[in-house]
Amino acid sequence: MFRKGSIKNRSSIQGWLYISPFIIGFLLFYAGPMIFAAYISLTEWPVLGKPEFVGLLNFENMLSDDLLWESLRLTIVYTLIVVPLNVIVGLFLAILLNQKIRALSFFRTLFYIPSVITGVAVSILWWTVFNTEYGLLNSLLQEIGIPAIPWLTHTKWVLPAFIIISLWQVGGGVIIYLAGLQGIPTELYDAASIDGAGSWSRFRRITLPMLSPVLLFTLVLGIIGTFQSFTNALIITNGGPSNASLFYVLYIYRNAWAFNRMGYAAAMSWLLFVVILVVTIIVFRLTSARVFYPGSTVKGGL
Amino acid sequence: MGFRIQKLLSNMKVMSAFQRTLTYIVLIAALILIMFPLVWMVSASLKPNSQIFTYPPKWIPWPPLLSNYPSGLETLKFGVGLRNTLLITIPCVIGQVFSCSLVGYGLARFRFRGRDAIFVLVLATMMLPSQVTFIPTYIIFSRLGLVDTFWPFWLPAWAATSGFNIFLLRQFFQAISTEIEDAARIDGASEFDIYWRIILPLSKPALTAVALFAFVAYWNDFFGPLIYLPSESNKTLQLLLMRFRTTYTTDWGPMMAAQVVISLVPLLIFFFAQRQFIQGVVFTGIKE
């Protein structure tokens, strides 16, 4: 019939053809730039000028740049609070929604809307909400007797303000967790109930393990994304007050375009990459024992 | 045993009513918290600047100041901004859908050495922070004289640079049963025919989801236009929103009006294509 060799070859070449856009894209927009970035980080390069090779000078300067480490520290702290918080709140809302509520898709849609709407004006909107004198938030707090909080003008309160803002787009997670929850066979819960398991126990022993791949997925992507926070920091506070909200990517942006130090900015980007990589690996290590992939256990009925 | 089950079920029913009410309360509270910035935004867009920050806030302005809208859109240079935003968004969305589905299909249906390594690379690009590449990419485009054009957007879009979309489509393609393809192959259809005439039409849900996500992403993109589009005549709508903020004041009413208009587009698209959107989100989250 067919010569096995020829089908394999044809399939092979064709396969590569289909993949080719990615190969091109990967080389042009990932691998190439990354290698180039490694070179740039070894130079002093004003945007419109000529690069000047300076070896490891940028990295040396990074070590003594206190602002950089402060910026990195606050970004890490912010990420480590925001991501788990969003996962927990998202999961909580999803569980509530999963209880056969009548207006389920209504809630789900409305919760998701903030993820579709972003924009400079939305960021400025947050600025007004958190404004100390006439912001909505403080007005509401004063109604219940809490004195006005200097959200955006005090170094202590600016990060909490950003954390609150991050919860606005929790709907994206809600949708994913909701779908995950709906995929858990109810027999598991019934069997557990009959055996006398309480709701907390059911949550811990059934819901969490069954959702663990999804939770890991959103956790990791959430960490990677949150490390890159930029727009709100630029528009709402521009890194202030006193650099208390100088997120790392904002600082990179400033170095590259405001201070005209592309080389330094490139070096900073590499540090960010390493940090994200390390954190991601740590998260994977910490959770690998607890992530349960259904289908990897013994076959057979429950 | 029967008695135990009965007791259990009746317990569950009683708990249920109380639980149900509590659930609704919490959900509605969460909904109010999440919706109120948007409601405030619409409300502010209909007020004169002097009334926007009064307390207690007047949620429904009457009479509504509709003139904020034309005034806002004019400051925004809506016509120019819309043209630029669409000039970027539409080709890029088409590019993403087309190139990512090609790659996804290749990864799903062909077997060749290095395929799995390529797939790992695709996943890796999903995890790479964009900061590592955007500086060198900017410099490259700058040297090529392509800053202040739309090429920095178009080129990556057609080069399947969204690992996310490739991943989504590959998962989807893999789930399609191969029977139809086998039948077509026996009938003598070429591989590309199969791809174009059979797989793609079957994949409408996934392709729609990709297109929708891409559209919203490009429509809302701020950073890309920020660094690549310095001249006013090339700016996108998101970027033009900055025009409302001068060193001295911010023109609140018209700005909110402008933002409402800009947000309406992804919002309407979302409303009409809700199911695909949500399916798309779910698909990537669940099918690992």
Could you outline the blueprint of secondary structure elements for this entry?
The complex is a heterodimer of chains A (302) and B (288).
Chain A: H1 4-40, E1 43-44, E2 52-53, H2 57-64, H3 66-97, H4 104-116, H5 120-129, H6 136-143, H7 155-166, H8 171-182, H9 186-194, H10 199-227, H11 231-237, H12 248-258, H13 262-288
Antiparallel strand pairs in A: 1-2
Helix pairs in contact in A: 2-13, 3-7, 3-8, 3-10, 4-8, 5-11, 8-10, 10-13, 12-13
Chain B: H1 2-45, H2 68-75, H3 78-109, H4 115-127, H5 131-143, H6 151-158, H7 163-175, H8 179-186, H9 191-202, H10 204-220, H11 223-228, H12 237-240, H13 252-272, H14 274-286
Helix pairs in contact in B: 1-13, 2-13, 3-6, 3-7, 3-10, 4-7, 8-9, 10-14
Number of strands of chain B: 0
Which geometry of chain B do the CA atoms define? globular
Strand content of chain A: under 5%
Count, helices of chain A: 13
Which runs of chain B of at least 5 residues are low in confidence (pLDDT < 50)?
A: none
According to CATH, the homologous superfamily of the largest domain in chain B is: MetI-like
Radius of gyration of chain A: 25 Å
* Major beta-sheet overview of chain B: none
Would you tell me the structural class of the helices and strands of chain B? mainly alpha
Mean pLDDT value of chain A: 84
* CATH topology-level name of the largest domain in chain B: MetI-like fold
Please give the CATH architecture of the largest domain in chain B: Orthogonal Bundle
Helix percent of chain A reads over 70%
Quickly count the helices of chain B: 14
Q: Structural class, judged by helices and strands of chain A?
A: mainly alpha
Secondary-structure element string of chain B: HHHHHHHHHHHHHH
- What's the end-to-end separation of chain A, in Å? 46 Å
Oligomer: heterodimer
